[in-house]
Amino acid sequence: MEVRVSDVKKWVGREEATEIQEAWPEVASARVGYPLTDPAVVHVLVRNTGGGRLVVEVKGVLEAEAVCTRCAEPFHLSLPFEATEEFREEAGPSDENLDYGRYTGDKINLDVMVADAAGASVPIAVLCHPDCLGLCPVCGTNRNVTSCDCAVAVDERWAPLADLTWPDDTDHAKN
Ligand SMILES: [Zn+2]
Ligand SMILES: [Zn+2]
Question: Which end of the chain lies in a sparser environment, N or C, as judged by fewer CB atoms within 10 Å?
Answer without folding.
Answer: C
